[in-house]
Write a structure and sequence with these properties.
16% strand
Length: 306
Amino acid sequence: MNLFSVVVPVYMCSECIPILLGRLSIALEQITDNYEIILVDDFSPDNSWAIIQASAVNDSRVKGIRLSRNFGQHYAISAGIDASNGDWVVVMDCDLQDKPEEIPKLYSYALKGYQQVIGKRSARQDKPFKKITSKLFFIILSFLLGNKVNSQIGNFGIYSRKVIDAIVSLREQSRSFGLLAIWVGFPRIEVDVTHAKREIGNSSYSLNRMINLAIDSIVSNSARLLILTIKMGILIAFFAFLAAIVLIVGFVKNPNNLSGWTSLIVSLFLATGLFIFTLGIVGIYVGKIFDQVKERPLYVVNETTF
């Protein structure tokens, strides 16, 4: 068994791959020469796969997996950890913002008995918009999960074989590697690491993809939205009851008063909007159930280098 496996999802990052592999080799050889680097090409439209193939020919410790289409980052991570053999597995991004030089530092904490050592980006180098939206998402997610989730935490970390095997056993369709790692438990520590600026290319996460990932992560890990809709319904019903009393009293005092049509129409549209909103939330949960019961594989592999 390899002592170390490094899993890297790859998408639109062809220029980063040779630099990443070089820096990974230097960092890992400080620990051991018994390692594998698994690069998972998430059907990237650039020449990433050709570079991965060439790298695998030059170094047998480099392994490539190419998915049959773009499944998404967390599905690519799943493909990588499924194929990993290491006693310890490092998960990191390919854009060089996760610095390979931090791996020995993370491993030093693993030797102290921690089975999850997560890199905490004390000073994120992302663009302001991404930092703001990420912070907002984690505030909402923490509220809905009932547990604080740190916005400085990403996928970058080192995980024991026990942790990886536990995550691999979870075959639910909605994937968020970081949240699955939190759910499986085991001794865990978050360690400050340096977060680098992205010097090559741009992030593939558009605003729409970030929103979809946020909704997916929330719905897949918490039923609290359904509870909130129930509470909202009770609250609206309570105010409607008070309004009804006010209207009845007003009618008794002045039976000929026909005012209030504007407020009636506004109330009708408000109630309709809230009903559709609630129905939409329930529909999302039902859709997730539908996706799960089909029992489709999480990803489809097109080819590998091994």
